[in-house]
Design goal:
The structure holds 2 protein chains of 2 kinds. By secondary structure, chain A is of the alpha/beta class. Helices cover about 40% and strands about 15% of the residues of chain A. Chain A has a 7-stranded parallel sheet with strand order 3-4-2-5-6-1-7, with helices on both faces. In chain A, strand 3, helix 6 and strand 4 form a beta-alpha-beta unit. In chain A, helix 16 crosses helix 18, helix 16 runs parallel beside helix 26 and helix 26 crosses helix 27. The longest helix of chain A has 25 residues. The mean pLDDT of chain B is about 90. In chain B, a hairpin with a 2-residue loop joins strand 8 and strand 9. In chain B, the strands form 2 sheets. In chain B, strands 8, 9, 10, 11, 12, 13, 14 and 15 form an 8-stranded mixed sheet that branches. In chain B, strands 1-2-3-4-5-6-7 form a 7-stranded mixed sheet, with no helix packed on it. Chain B has one domain. The chains are: A alpha/beta, B alpha/beta. Chains A and B meet through helix 27 and helix 31 of A and helix 1, helix 2, strand 11 and strand 12 of B.
């Protein structure tokens, strides 16, 4: 047998290096090499530690050596994170330097200096490692075609993070642009294991394409924290188990504690320090911290200088920290993929299992944790749903295209619909987006003399940018990630990080809050800077971050339902959980996995309806609002509702008699539009849409409101537009966004389609054990923003009047 | 229309939720900071706001004029956003406005935004005195009571753990500041330096504008 035929990589330039390291090629590396060589686009699915990065570079390096002193850009590597891009460079450097290969490679991200960027444009490296945003920028330069015309490979790393968001839309549009520049370009995707591998392939690849997959046979060892304490009914802070968590940290060399929100991170960090008798080195890491603080933590982590880091998803992706021994996940896993990603942060050796401990913060989370462990054993991953491409991203792309030079709208349209997310984009919508970039695209043609792009007189299909000044505006606005308005926090002259404006607005001078692990006292806010000083106060607020919460995945929800119904498992649970479920079974019912339990009972003069949907909190929130409207119509006099991932509870003055007839698809069809009108949900998405589509300019951090010009808010624009031009493309786009995200329309629709035949209605005399957690979450009435504002004003006026009367009597 | 009674300089004024102020004794309506044509002036910098603000502002004004039929309309500055704004006034708008001028005396006080702009048929003033009241865009050194605009005041209200911002009428003993009558106009916190330099921080009378009602704090 000819060994070279069975493994072509034995002749590869890197083989010598592999041998020296005593490494051998993985089967998926060989397979990928073959497919790419035969001209296929390929998506590679492999776990961390299986040489994924190298897999992507095997063909480019082979080709570059064969081409011998190739000049110009040959391979583009797209990474989801800047920090990851730097790490890739370090990984690539080793073999190339050690083998003294004649291949140049550089990184280009938002952190690259203008000087270096300029140099790269004049003399591009063979391999460029960059991010989707930097690629979009490169494509907007006038010489983009020359720059990319000989590009042979594009490698997309961590492709699973790109499938279901607007960044994916932006990237896919830019990949098609590269394909236009360089028709022979081949696409290579690298991904963590996915359930729907075909979808990832569809998203990235052209017709001739292959999937290469490598599954790790060593399963991670995941357990639930054995606590002597009682798991609380509700809450999300895991205070009960803090001492046991501390013990676990002591047992391992290096631990990462993952939590779900930034607030939880701050809280956990603070509580660990309160009991840190052994003076362990504990750090905190989340997306709001100042970049330098984050880098410092990451550095210490990779050097093993810390014992434990409390982190949010900010540490989910990124550098390999080889020495992490243990992962502790505090709070619900929410999804299988996410949990696996987090667990995979420990121990990058393929042959030994990763170790993780789950710490449920309440009783439902215990079941959820248990279910997640079961699913991971079965390797039952979550599906990532591909999304239809968003309009606002196309608008931004049109602007970018115009910056690169004049263009033919028909050519552009044909190119855009080659991108998978936009295969269904119709020409009318596309034209509306052209108009949006041209002059806002309003029916009332008021801006003829102010257009941003215009049609050439001799050929109406050709559009051109009015002047080069506009390119600067595009470049300030590039990208699809819109942060909430943030303010910089200053302790003395030191910047600690960014905090949401909304949170600061709620503080008064002297209030204390926790940030970056310190208790801080709010002093003043000036020019978008929040001045704070250290505080010894024990009472402190925790910043809430609206973005942190994600809903329970459908896959895991189904598993939770199935597990709940398995009563033969209960005896294996901690006593209080077993007791809880048994009592529920006696008093009410444990729903079977396809049943929807509805409980109704009187409590404190009100009438309560609890519906266990397991639909995730977005869908439950929507359902709550819809039911509220419907209850009003039936004159049940509803007072409010609360939703979480598992259930919703509504309370009303009158008994809700028709719940079985109310809960069906009609609810959605009849009330959704009105609901969207009344709440600020669409308005919230309008802001993102207006910024991404470059209708309004991004307020970059540190940019100040200029004295004279009071910035208009996107809310005002939304209101005016909605009133005068309800069919405007940006309203349509915002509506679609809202439907997909906050409303979780499709998921709710699926449930409502089948729910009416599967309702188990239990009329009880008092609250059931299963309902206790959600009842405990009721703390305030849910009124719409408009109502809340009026309520606050009225109440305050009333109080002041009362106070005034009292004073005058005295 | 529900209004809030405001006593200022020993005179009674009515504050309306549409952000206009009415002086009943003299049958005079006062508005401020309309910023007509703000959208078109942004458009020249390629920020394409919905071009419906002028229409909406004027309609709002017409509704007031039809209902109240005031003898005088005092605009305390920034009727127009800038020199480009006149482009958004169409022939029909000019016709409508001159129709209203037959029964109402329009007194346009120039603001910082529109000081160099003329509109045919509009009388304009740098400020305007009636009795002991001076109408001016930005307050000046005087012993008179002043009614002005310019600042687009908003008030931050924290109550029961919630914080909201509301457009507001606000005055101290001598100076009254109207909210902006415009559509796409933002606001400035009355605690900000710019406003507190004028009004001070203490003894302010604050009247936040709600949906259908002007409140009194």
């Amino acid at each position: 047998m000819n060994i070279n035929k069975s493994n072509p990589l034995l002749l590869h330039p890197l083989n010598k290096w592999m041998k020296k390291k005593k490494w051998s090629w993985f089967p998926h590396q060989i397979e990928t090499f073959r497919h790419v060589q035969s001209g296929s686009d390929v998506v590679v699915f492999a776990p961390t530690g299986a040489g994924k990065t190298l897999t992507g570079f095997i063909n480019p390096i082979d080709d570059l050596i064969k081409l011998n002193k190739f000049k110009g850009l040959h391979t583009l590597y797209i990474s989801p994170l800047k920090s990851l891009a730097n790490d890739i460079v370090r990984n690539l450097e080793k073999p190339i330097k050690e083998l003294d290969l004649n291949i140049s490679f550089q990184v280009r991200t938002g952190d690259t200096t203008p000087y270096k960027k300029q140099k790269q444009k004049q003399k591009p490296p063979n391999i460029l490692i960059t991010t989707p945003e930097s690629l979009a920028l490169l494509n907007s330069y006038e010489n983009a075609k020359e720059f990319f015309q000989n590009l042979k490979y594009i490698i997309i790393d961590e492709i699973h993070t790109f499938l279901d968001n607007k960044r994916a839309d932006l990237l896919s549009l830019n990949i098609e642009r590269l394909q236009t520049f360089s028709p022979n370009l081949q696409r290579i995707g690298l991904s963590a294991t996915l359930k729907n591998k075909q979808d990832a392939k569809k998203w990235l690849c052209r017709k001739k394409s292959k999937i290469v997959s490598y599954e790790n046979s060593v399963l991670p060892k995941i357990t639930i924290l054995q606590s002597k304490e009682r798991i609380p009914w509700s809450g999300h802070m895991a205070t009960y188990s803090i001492n046991e968590i501390y013990k676990e940290i002591m047992k391992s060399k290096l631990t990462i504690i993952f939590v779900n929100t930034r607030a939880q991170a701050e809280y956990m960090f603070k509580n660990l320090w309160l009991i840190n008798k052994k003076k362990l080195k504990i750090a905190v890491h989340h997306g709001s911290l100042e970049k330098n603080l984050r880098l410092k933590v990451e550095n210490n982590l990779s050097k093993g200088l810390v014992d434990c880091v409390v982190a949010t998803s900010s540490l989910e992706l990124g550098l390999d920290y080889g020495d992490v021994e243990k992962i502790i996940q505090v709070g619900a896993p929410k999804g299988i993929n996410r949990l696996l990603q987090r667990v995979g942060r420990s121990n990058h050796n393929l042959n030994t299992p990763s170790k993780a401990i789950l710490v449920p913060t309440n009783r439902f989370e215990f079941i959820e944790a248990k279910a997640a462990i079961e699913e991971i054993k079965k390797n039952n991953l979550d599906k990532i749903d591909l999304k239809e491409g968003s309009f606002d991203v196309v608008a931004q792309h049109i602007f970018a295209t115009a910056c690169a030079g004049q263009f033919d709208i028909n050519d552009l349209y044909v190119e855009i619909i080659k991108a998978y997310p936009y295969k269904n984009l119709n020409f009318n919508d596309f034209k509306a987006l052209i108009n949006l970039i041209q002059d806002g695209g309003y029916i009332l043609k008021n801006y003829d003399q102010f257009k941003r792009i215009f049609q050439l007189r001799e050929d109406k299909n050709i559009y051109k940018l009015v002047n080069r000044r506009e390119t600067r505006k595009y470049r300030m606005n590039v990208g699809t990630i819109i942060e909430n308005p943030m303010l910089k926090i200053k302790l003395g002259t030191k910047t600690l990080g960014n905090i949401e404006e909304v949170f600061i607005q709620n503080l008064s001078q002297g209030d204390s809050f926790i940030f970056a692990g310190q208790v801080l006292e709010f002093q003043s806010m000036k020019n978008n800077l929040v001045q704070v000083k250290r505080s010894k106060s024990l009472i402190s607020k925790i910043p809430s971050y609206s973005g942190g919460r994600m809903p329970l995945s459908t896959n895991l929800a189904n598993s939770v339902r199935a597990l709940l119904a398995k009563s033969n498992m209960w005896d294996l649970y901690p006593e209080q959980i077993t007791e809880w479920l048994k009592r529920q079974k006696n008093i009410s019912k444990i729903p079977k996995k396809d049943e929807y339990l509805v409980e109704q009972f009187p409590r404190k003069k009100n009438f309560y309806t609890v519906i266990y949907t397991f639909a995730g909190w977005h869908a439950n929130q929507t359902l709550g609002f819809l039911l509220l409207r419907c209850f009003k119509e039936f004159n049940y006099k509803p007072l409010g509702f609360v939703a979480n991932d598992y259930a919703i509870v509504l309370w009303s003055l009158k008994e809700v008699k028709e719940i079985k007839t109310i809960l069906n698809l009609g609810l959605l069809d009849k009330h959704l539009d009105n609901y969207l009108e009344e709440t600020s949900i669409v308005k919230r998405y309008f802001r993102d849409n207006a910024i991404i589509s470059c209708l309004i300019e991004r307020r970059l951090p540190g940019m100040e409101k200029t004295g004279k010009q009071v910035l208009f808010s996107s809310d005002l624009i939304y209101t005016v537009l909605k009133k005068n031009e309800p069919d405007h493309i940006l309203l349509k786009s915002s509506y679609e966004d809202a439907k997909k995200n906050m409303i979780d329309y499709d998921r709710l629709r699926e449930i409502l389609k089948k729910i009416d035949k599967k309702i188990i209605l239990k009329k009880l005399t008092s609250i059931s054990p299963l309902a206790v957690p959600i009842i405990l979450e009721i703390n305030r009435e849910n009124l719409s923003k408009k109502e809340t504002d009026e309520y606050i004003l009225e109440d305050l006026e009333h109080e002041i009047l009362k106070e005034a009367n009292v004073l005058s009597i005295n | 229309m529900y209004y809030q009674l405001i006593n200022f300089g020993n005179e009674e004024f009515h504050a309306y939720p549409n952000k206009s102020l009415y002086w009943k004794r003299l049958n005079t309506l006062i508005v401020s900071d309309l910023h007509i044509g703000k959208s078109i002036s942004y458009a020249k910098n390629k920020q394409f706001l919905p071009p419906y603000d002028t229409k909406e502002i004027l309609n709002k004004l017409y509704v007031c004029l039809d209902k109240i039929k005031p003898s005088n309309l005092i605009i305390v500055g920034d009727l127009l956003h800038d020199v480009f704004s006149t482009l958004s006034l169409k022939d029909q708008d000019h016709k409508n406005l001159s129709k209203y001028m037959k029964n109402t005396d329009f007194i346009w006080i120039k603001g910082n935004h529109d000081k160099n702009i003329q509109i045919e048929g509009f009388k304009n003033f740098t400020n305007y005195k009636i009795d002991k009241f001076l109408f001016t865009h930005i307050p000046i050194e005087t012993s008179l009571f002043q009614i002005c605009g310019h600042y687009h005041p908003k008030v931050k209200i924290s109550h029961r753990g919630k914080t909201i911002f509301k457009t507001t009428f606000v005055h101290n003993e001598k100076i009254f500041i109207l909210p902006s009558f415009g559509i796409l106009t933002g606001g400035l916190d009355i605690n900000s330096k710019k406003i507190s330099d004028v009004l001070g921080m203490k003894n302010l009378s604050i009247y936040p504008v709600g949906q259908d009602k002007v409140y009194k704090l």
